Amino acid sequence: MPENTGPTGSPCGSSVLVTGATGNVGREVVDRLRARGARVRCLVRGQGGRRPGVECVVGDLTDPGAVREALVDIDAVFLIWPLLDVAPAHALIAELTVAAPRVVYLSSTAVDDEAVRQSDPIAHVHADMEALLHDAGLRPVVLRSDTLASNARGWVAQLRVGDVVSGPEAARTAVVDERDVADAAVAVLLAQHDQLDHGPHVLTGPDVLSRADQVARLGAALRRDLRFHALSADLARSRMLADGRPEPLVEALIAASVRRPESTRTTDHVERLTGRPAGTFATWALDHAAEFS
Ligand SMILES: NC(=O)c1ccc[n+]([C@@H]2O[C@H](COP(=O)([O-])OP(=O)(O)OC[C@H]3O[C@@H](n4cnc5c(N)ncnc54)[C@H](OP(=O)(O)O)[C@@H]3O)[C@@H](O)[C@H]2O)c1
């Protein structure tokens, strides 16, 4: 692949496969890669996931044939694993091992390297995925993201009809802007080989926030008096099931809300990778206020 130069002037000869390209982080990664002049291919589950001007392979992460097709002539992969079961990842990892691209895996700050057992099923999946990628000899670049600010999009429906966000309580964490995660991902996807740090990079925002803190900051951005109402685990479970969410996902979310410990660590890893400090949730709220009106 000939080396070209992106619009920012940085050398960019990479072909990058983006998984989860329709998601909160993935679409930001696609935009940034294109702006840097990288060749981008997306793996999307349906024709609706296609984006104008972006090459797409339609298929599931659990379909080895689609993954094989998507990996042809790819230098680096932005990999997410949104499933609650790692068993189907073995076939994906076999394809990655054959194609041997740089793998940048989006993991979670909930992974505890010292724990014999992870706090909840979501942390467990990420810990297992990191281990599987390492054990396959892929030397993944691991990005451990804190709670994404974009999770607040899940409150849009409630805030269209009232000023209260109800949901399961969650321990405080250093909520991170998904745009910072995307910037960090692009930095390592396109880094020169000799400048690549495999991490784990712990991507956090600057402030440790409760759900109530987030709702209050969102209220300030929207100029509304918003508040958070914590639901008991049983009530939160029954509401999420009534909303049509799959039972295994509901159980995983409830387990995370009940068992995941507070995460008060803030790092400068966003700044180390991107050259600028991580943004605040207040800024995220201002930038996304229109989505809540
Ligand atoms: N949310 C957090 O606070 C947090 C924190 C740390 C790490 N993470 C990790 O970050 C990942 C990305 O977060 P996000 O907010 O961008 O997720 P998101 O908005 O929910 O997007 C998920 C993406 O995965 C795709 N997808 C789901 N199942 C798939 C499958 N079986 N095969 C192929 N693609 C599939 C979806 O495609 P469709 O459009 O077809 O549904 C979508 O593009 C999460 O999955 C999680 O592993 C999240």
Uncertain segments: 1-11
Under CATH, the topology of the domain at 15-145 and 178-203 and 266-276 can be stated as Rossmann fold
The general outline is globular
The share of residues in helices is 25-40%
Radius of gyration: 19 Å
Helix/strand class: alpha/beta
Annotation field: number of helices: 11
Distance between the termini: 46 Å
Write out the distinct hetero groups bound to the structure.
NADP nicotinamide-adenine-dinucleotide phosphate
CATH superfamily of the domain at 15-145 and 178-203 and 266-276: NAD(P)-binding Rossmann-like Domain
**Main sheet: strands, sense, barrel:** 7 strands, parallel
* CATH top level label of the domain at 15-145 and 178-203 and 266-276: Alpha Beta
SSE order, as H and E? EHEEHEHEHEHEHEHEHHHH
* Average pLDDT taken over every residue: 94
CATH architecture descriptor of the domain at 15-145 and 178-203 and 266-276: 3-Layer(aba) Sandwich
**Order of strands across the main sheet:** 3-2-1-4-5-6-8
